[in-house]
Amino acid sequence: MTRTEAALPSELAEAQLLESAIEFHNSRQYGIARQLYAQVLEQNPNHEIAWHNLGLVEHVTGRHAQAVEYIGKAIDLKPDYARAYANLTAILREARQFDAARETAERAVRLDPGFAPSHNNLGNVLEDIGALEAALAAYLAACRLDPFFVEAHVNGAEILRRLDRHDEALALCATAAAKRPDAAAPHFAAGNILRDLLRIDEACAAFEQAVALRPDFAEAYSNLGNMLQHHNDFAGALAAYEKALAINPDMAEVHCNIGTAYESLFRADEALSAYARAVALNPALVGIRLQMLYIRRAFCDWAGHDAEESAVLAAAAAYGGTVPPFSTLSMNSGHALQLHVARNWTKALRAAPSFDHRRPAANERGRKLRIGYLSSDFFRHATAMLMVGVFEQHDRSRFEIIAYSHGASDGSELRHRLDRAFDRFVDLTGVDDRIAAQRIYDDKVDILIELKGYTQFSRSEIAAHRPAPIQVNFLGYPGTMGAAFIDYVIADPITLPMDQQPFYDEKIIHLPDSYQPNDRSRPIDDRTPTRAECGLPAEGFVFCCFNNSYKITPQFFAIWMRLLAAVPGSVLWLLDGNERVKANLRREAAAQGVDPERLVFAARRGLGAHLARHRLADLFLDTLPYNAHTTTSDALWAGLPVITMLGDTFAGRVAASLLHAVGLPELVTRSLQDYEALALKLAQAPEALAAVRRKLFANRPSAPLFDVARYTRHLEAAYTRMWDVWAGGEAPRAFAVAPITPHAAAALAPVQAITRHAYEACPLCGSRAHKAFFGADCSRDSGYRAGMPSQVQWHLCDDCDHVFAEGYFDPALAPGGASFGHEMEAGRRAIAPLVAAAARHIGLRNCDTAWLDAGFGAGSLLLTAAEFGFEAVGLESRAAPVAALRQLGLEAHHVSIENFAAPGRFGVVSLDDQLPRCADPTDRLAAAHRLLQRDGLLVLSLPNMDAMPFNLLHAQAANPYWSEIGRYHMFGRARLYALLREWGFEPLEFQVSAQLRIGMDIIARRIG
């Protein structure tokens, strides 16, 4: 046997070993592959392929140092081994050795310029270091070399997406899908691009195509779930997430998404379970830990609360990833951490400044400024309720204002008012962020006001494109946005002292009184509910806090429980969150020795009704570290004193700002001990509390807090100063707006007395024989003003039994009533039976006759009459409801019924709770008689003092009607019928009113 024959079996054995090793390698049996490669190298230590492939095995099994060593040996053996360089690049990238990775990738390209994976790997490294344009060039080179190279096409599309070149990105995905119709990745990449463009239906279709081609594509199922969740298809989203987890149960992000879906479905327990699983899989998910803590706080589940808050805040401080900034505001986080978290959040935004802004020439600087307000909250939302008066008050000779809305309309009266308040109202709902920014830029907006900040449903990337030369963080987010694209934050000396500037990337602007605007026309229902209706005891001091439950902390709740223990018979009135919140708080109360029944929970109501029930409370107790904001101004507007403690950060200093602006700085405390002591003092000293309440009522009409015209002038002065700074070529700088007029003297000026015009005789029969019947406290009524007498005396006529107040006020002082559209649907359902009864009496064939509603207020009766086919006409003493009704195409007049000239025109005249509120009911009846056709109908709604519930409440000194400022007459059915007959009406039908509490509805026919 020759030497060659003897060596051949050894060579065959080496080749067979290598072939087997590669087979096991490709089937992911890495342990066996490692052994076989080692045997090859025992036979031939200079086998570069075995060293290279062994390095790849070590890489995929997590032994990166060995991988680098072994592939390095392969390169030493074969210096032109381009594929080894390409794979070494990937390993160095994973080890975050970017400089070495880039050098290796470039060497691989030089060694074999035609090897597409080398260009792709170079693109990976360039992308890692942020060289996006260079990375894109490398990926496109790989695509040209290998048109079937799916990974390179997808990588290039991702870079184009990040560069906001979405059309090119989609085209690259389409090219890859056409070349490789079996590949799922191009559809997945297209779905991500379409998601960014808010083309949600198309994104869903792309993700569905991806999973159809690759049923084990867990990431595609996850993203499909996110799109379905965007469409509020939570059941479909959860099904997609479950499919993702069936493929890979350890995907932490999917568990996060499931938690989000369950939160949207208000299934908080399941949300917490999903979040807990996500954190178990990835403890670095600091944001999810914060969200779990937030949910538990919203439930008032405080087990281990303080320790967990400390731990998660410490983790957030050391964390370089994104944490929702808003969640930190309600924790003891401090300015430094809030800035850190906001900056990290901002870094994750994909948008970058996209527009150039030319500074104006000298002769352009004094022109009218165009202000854009960006928000999703132009509906019945706290921000809109606060700001609507400002929008209306803007000086149109100096400012043009535009709303940029990326939220839905709720069809409310407030939304209708907002539509009219702006010069233009631009709907950006469903519009891509870049296109939205382009619209703002094209509109030549000078100052863009970001009203959302980092709150729910914000779209910060619109502002991140920098569509306006000046951009401002205002009102919606009480903290720094940590963003270079926001120039200013609007605050005041209390909420954000200038010494906090190091913790704000925005420059601080101080308004003189308070940063918070307030609308003076926010509605308060005339009717005050009874204590019994609100679940309150008949007697006893009422502490209240209508803050959302997440703001309540164990520390402050413990203070409240000590106050209840110290004030016998007192109760704590809280907003009703849900059954779990109530159970947790009751358990906490019991643990602190307080009867859980002394916690009373207020169901959610419309704004007018909610503000009206404030009259039943004695003292509002604020929270920290997140104060009551709009809730404080609501309470003060309703006449309820608020006690607060001054916090460290913006969110914890708002109530103090509001109290100073309403002239009650003595209700601001600086320590927990002082907070508790002041609350106890006022609860135990009725005269001291009454003095505070009187001061609040006296201050409210002239206080800066509720002076929207003054506020708007200050805000406009801030806008003008910002513009002057920018137009002068300067960088943004902090400044304070000087007050326009001093209020100190006005606050000390004596309050002018407002007196009633006394009834010397009975207003119905003229008899002077009448006597005092009942006295009532009217100081808590919504229409009460400083200077008015706090008591009203009711009289009983000896001759005709009419019950009337001692006198009446000038009509200009009458309470405004409900705003147009207020609780429209509820009013519509309540009034429909009465309108149907009138239609029956008038004859269904004659329902096209004219119906006049005098004092139509919220509009429920009038609009329901129109639904039945009547020609609806409204009269109202306030201009705004008249304008709103005319917007709907209906006839409306800003005039009283006594002065309305249309004799004999109407088939129906309605006076909804009008007779008790006018100085002389006979004048109103005479006017109605004049305006009605012969045999026309008079429709009345008013309280019935003959009703048994009316008299029962009177006996319990709990009847709210006696205390209403604007009510001057009380009628029973018998006395009303007699009055109607006197003035030419014959009663036809009596109903128990469905709209007025203890009320009656009367239909009468005009005779004579």
Task: Summarize the structure in words.
- This protein has 1008 residues and is α/β, with parallel strands linked by helices.
- Helices cover 47% and strands 13% of the residues.
- The chain has an eight-stranded parallel β-sheet with strand order 3-2-1-4-5-6-7-14, covered by helices on one side.
- Helix 28 (630-637) links the parallel strand 11 and strand 12 (642-645).
Quick recap:
With 1008 residues, this protein is α/β, with parallel strands linked by helices. It has 39 helices and 27 strands. The strands form five sheets. It has an eight-stranded parallel β-sheet, with helices on one face. It has a seven-stranded mixed β-sheet with strand order 22-21-20-23-24-27-26, sandwiched between helices. Strands 10-9-8-11-12-13 form a six-stranded parallel β-sheet, with helices on both faces.
Structural class: alpha/beta
Low-confidence stretches: 1-12, 743-750
Outline, from the CA principal axes? Answer: elongated
Strand segment count = 27
In DSSP terms (H or I, runs of 4 or more residues), the helix count works out at 39
Q: Kindly report the spatial arrangement of strands forming the biggest sheet.
A: 3-2-1-4-5-6-7-14
| Head-to-tail CA distance between termini | 142 Å
Q: Report the C-alpha radius of gyration, rounded.
A: 36 Å
Content of β-strand:
5-15%
Largest beta sheet, briefly?
8 strands, parallel
Q: Which bin fits the share of residues in helices?
A: 40-55%
Q: What's the mean pLDDT score?
A: 90
